[in-house]
Amino acid sequence: MKEILILGIETSCDETSASVLKNGTEVLSNVISSQIDLHRLYGGVVPEVASRKHVESIIPVIDRAVKESGKALEEISAVGVTCGPGLAGALLVGISAAKALAFALGIPVIGVDHIEGHICANYLENPDLEPPLVCLVVSGGHSHLIKITSDGEYEVLGRTRDDAAGEAFDKVARTIGLGYPGGPLIDKAAASGNPDAVRFPKTYFSESLDFSFSGIKTAVLNYVNNMERKNEKWSVEDVAASFQKAVAEVLVTNSIKAVKQSGLNALALAGGVASNSLLRLELEKAAAKEGIRLSVPRPVLCTDNAAMIACAAYRKFIAGKISGLDLNAIPGLKLGDIIY
Predict the structure, then answer these.
(1) Does residue 293 sit within a domain?
(2) Kind plus residue range of the DSSP H or E element containing 70
(3) Among positive and negative, which fits the CA dihedral 151, 153, 158, 164?
(4) Between helices 236-262 and 182-190, what is the axis angle to 10°?
(5) Tally of domains within the chain
(6) Most buried among 207, 209, 218, 319, using CB within 10 Å?
(7) Domain membership flag for residue 340
(8) Residues 188 and 264 reside in one and the same domain
(9) Do 259 and 136 sit in the same domain of this protein?
(10) Domain CATH code at residue 99
């Protein structure tokens, strides 16, 4: 079998990443240049700053990924690149680099949905995993429960009606003085806190599997303001642990319910929030109790990375789903939309 080498490029937000993937599952390199320290100064991602940093980083990151793979550029079969959803300026940097490489090398370019990339991280972690399955995608911008019937065939079973889970983590972290990025900082603080110290509200919808995290975000803000107004002591660690427990409980409950209602027996976890230690633990316990096969990627594959993009591009490549050199950024791309 001839080697199929996919060069993946990811620049949808604040990570510049490139990866070389062999035959769909073997990661030869996965270089990630993070901008966290840069955006921490502003308490969140600044789109214009992110775009400028991508311009500085994209070529060195691609060069390093190719070098670490042990392959030559001329051996690459196709270039896969995130084309949405994401920040328009950031996406355009990656897309421009991908199209230039594809044109120069005379190989195809393949546009990839960022959310589809996160889902495909599970195929890298568990090469024998295949649809049908349900995937919980939780990140700074997304909280989706997705039924995957086959490659490219998706049904959204539930989504956030307001804040995404990762967005709520970031806002709560700022409220309790932890800073940015909120997810790992809350996870770390919660490790030494009491998860039952504060009873924060959990939102469920009887008619759907949708999520809502604006209520708990506001509840944390009100709790802190009330405690400070009364000059009463409160614990950052206890609030972090209590908040994290409530969010994880909602995510786990809806995920297990989605699998049961779909009549399937496989559940996957994806997205930046998938690195949260409590969510991973509680999902593992719940899946084991219900006899559900659970796939949880290692943390490096949960964050934005190009290996997951290369994996999604590989699956499109072998299916003949190739984009043209007119590929453009689609900041508001919806999962399942045709981009080739």
Answers:
(1) yes
(2) none
(3) positive
(4) 110
(5) 2
(6) 209
(7) no
(8) yes
(9) yes
(10) 3.30.420.40
In a domain? residue 240: yes
H-helix or E-strand spanning residue 194 = none
Strands 5-10 and 26-34, by their bridges, are: unpaired
| Range(s) of the domain holding residue 93 | 5-120+302-318
Q: How far apart are CA 155 and CA 138, in angstroms?
A: 16
Coil, helix or strand for 203?
coil
Residue-wise DSSP of 108-141: -EEEEEHHHHHHHHHHHH-TT--SSEEEEEESSS
Q: Are residues 97 and 139 in the same domain?
A: no
Token pair for 143: 């909280």
Sequence-separated (6 or more) residues with CB below 8 Å from residue 172: 182, 186, 216, 217, 220, 239, 240, 243
Decide the pairing of beta strands 143-150 and 153-159: antiparallel
Asked if 137 and 283 sit in the same domain, the reply is yes
